[in-house]
Design brief:
Growth Hormone, Chain: A, single chain, 19 helices, mainly alpha
Length: 437
């Protein structure tokens, strides 16, 4: 079982916590004169955007653990639930570049408000769904307007100097972590009074986010998109082939994609698995997700930096992959809470150390002039995984033995492990080339 916190980056791809930025940016410091004034202004602008992101993420995380159970009430099969989850990611993938471009022309604040209104209306429509097709329409509306966090990232770039963005993105990363920790627990608690109640709670959070944007968020002058990082569309196959064909980058990208597929398989299928295997409902699933989110916050917030200094990223990637395989295989044999918690703990460690370490290695393997393109590629790989994996999870849970879903999730990670020797050789080539210079 993966860390729910790690899905903060999986669901809404961004440069939050980008190790390459963190490595090269000195952070926010109090300098003389205008620098001190600039940083003060940045903090005034970053506080409302951080609060807005917290509320946005709370709204989403209150929905996700509940959605499969809500769809079942409307007569959905496991396969249809997978399609319902994928419909959001598909619409988000199509609309994301358009909303980002629109925010460059019209400004961040108007597009952010429009995006948030779409999310609010999607939640209200979902809460009042009496037919499955209405639920699909609600999720597609939310996905088609889901530029909230993409525009928030661009807003941060607008109000910070290049050298200060790593710290600024880290602030939003903390907001992400808090939202993904608290949201599932709130959803589990509110579901006691009916499945529509957490959805209305998400709508209320979304409304608060809209009001915060209108009344608290200062307007900005958009910076050029190129300054934030080039974005790669999922349909730009020529760019894909060029990046994936680089021998020093290929094994890490394959491992990255396998991680996303496996994690999306788990994340979309676990509620139904827990229901059929353990008799859990939204309340229990929400608490399990909150537990893994807490583990992820502890590891990424206080331990990971020390581990990287002690062992390095590549060993941590291996530890993470092995932990995920073991965790998912334990999950396949889980019939009681005790084994479920063992699975959750082991795999949460794996996902918490794997993604940031693997992202750092990909960044190190990439020339500075291609950092933006590579970030865009990993974002697109994540989007494809979020579209395909929920459908596969639904098909397996509906038509295969229940344990097969967890086993396949582990086997996908095992494929990533198979590329570990290639990754080690690629890293050695880069390090030897650096020493020769």
């Amino acid at each position: 079982m993966g860390s729910f916190l790690d899905f903060t980056q999986a669901r809404r791809p961004s440069a939050f916590g980008n190790p390459d930025l963190a490595e090269h940016a000195p952070g926010l410091t109090n300098g003389p004169g205008s620098t001190r004034l600039r940083i003060s202004m940045n903090r005034k602008a970053l506080l409302p955007i951080a609060l807005i992101v917290v509320v946005d993420v709370l709204g989403y995380t209150m929905i996700f653990p509940l959605l499969p159970f809500f769809a079942q009430r409307l007569g959905a099969t496991a396969t249809q639930i997978g399609l319902l989850i994928s419909s959001f990611a598909f619409c988000q993938l199509i609309s994301g570049p358009f909303l980002g471009s629109l925010s460059d022309r019209w400004g961040r604040k108007p597009v952010l408000i429009a995006s948030q209104i779409g999310t609010f209306l999607g939640f209200i429509l979902l809460a009042n769904s009496r037919y499955l097709w209405v639920a699909f329409l609600a999720r597609m509306l939310d996905g088609a307007t889901a530029g909230n966090l993409t525009v928030a990232q661009a807003y941060i770039a607008d109000v910070t100097e290049k050298k200060d963005r790593a710290r600024a993105f880290a602030i939003i990363g903390i907001a992400f972590g808090f939202g993904f920790l608290v949201g599932p627990a709130i959803s589990g608690f509110l579901s006691h009074w009916g499945y529509a109640v957490p959805i209305y709670g998400s709508a209320a959070a979304s409304l608060l986010s809209i009001l915060g944007t209108i009344f608290l968020l200062p307007k900005t002058t958009p910076v050029k998109t190129a300054e934030i990082g080039a974005k790669v569309s999922v349909f730009q196959w020529k760019v894909y082939r060029e990046l994936i064909g680089r021998p020093n980058l290929t094994p890490f990208l394959i491992q990255f994609f396998c991680f996303f597929v496996s994690f999306s398989l788990f994340f979309s299928g676990f509620p139904l698995f827990a229901e059929q295997r353990l008799g859990y409902g939204p309340r229990e699933v929400g608490f399990v997700f909150a537990y893994t989110g807490l583990l992820g916050m502890i590891i990424q917030g206080g331990l990971l930096g020390k581990w990287v200094k002690r062992w390095g990223e590549l060993p941590l990637v291996q530890y993470g992959l092995y932990s995920m395989v073991i965790g998912y295989f334990i999950l396949a044999t889980s019939f009681h809470l005790s084994t479920l918690l063992v699975s959750a703990t082991v795999s949460a460690f794996g996902t918490a150390v794997l993604r940031p370490s693997l992202t750092a290695l990909i960044s190190k393997q990439t020339p500075p002039e291609h950092q933006g393109l590579t970030l865009g590629l990993t974002q697109s790989m994540n989007s494809v995984a979020q579209i395909l994996a929920p459908i596969l999870a639904g098909l397996m849970i509906e038509h295969a033995p229940l344990s097969a879903w967890a086993v396949v999730s582990g086997l996908v990670v095992a494929v990533a492990l198979a590329f570990s020797p290639s990754a080690k050789r690629a890293l050695a080539r880069i390090e030897s080339a650096g020493e020769s210079h």
